[in-house]
């Protein structure tokens, strides 16, 4: 809090100039926040995403906090991925305690406007659940001393998203993140060495990339070797060998061929055994 008090001793901040430098994406969210606050018709509860035991306060501390926060109408919380569901509840409880608004209608966060920023895929809370997860019954009893607790994230907050990445503007990484298609990504990976490893944040993204790479391999192959294996049981197996640069694919192909030939041999000897048993029964 001392940091904010020190602002008075520094050079004056030109708010108009800061607003003029906002891009269209940022201006849209800024207008949404300011219009909601200016209208006074509803409280702002908004999460904006982007691409990366409460003890009682002493009376004199309450008085200091009440004086410092009396003109505050908007509270902004950044890096929300590191805020646990318990910490978010503590913030609400502490504000309600400071201004004694526990028994008011819509008393969440002392009826302050709350704006959350952050990428939920970045650093998670330490040893606790993210803010959007419902508090467990055990934690409610242990830390809040009550029978139940509201999921503040789902109940109160709306959602918006910033798309324009200001940190990576003009860089090669920005091109990769914003311009590249799945086909271009497959072309890029195909030109890498055979020991390249791709790390993805979710299983879904991994499955999508695997499917795209397999389709890409079939389109860019030098030749395709097709083999039909006809077993004695009249079952026909069709195997297609794709010529690719990754040696693992060739080894897998060889294992498949070996498996089917072993299976065919086994079935052949099994059929001979059955014929011999049948012939011996007829002779008996």
TrEMBL record:
The chain crosses the membrane at residues 259-277. The keyword Membrane applies. InterPro entries: P-loop_NTPase, PIF1_helicase. It comes from the Eukaryota. Keywords: Membrane, Transmembrane, Transmembrane helix. PANTHER family: ATP-DEPENDENT DNA HELICASE (PTHR47642). This is ATP-dependent DNA helicase.
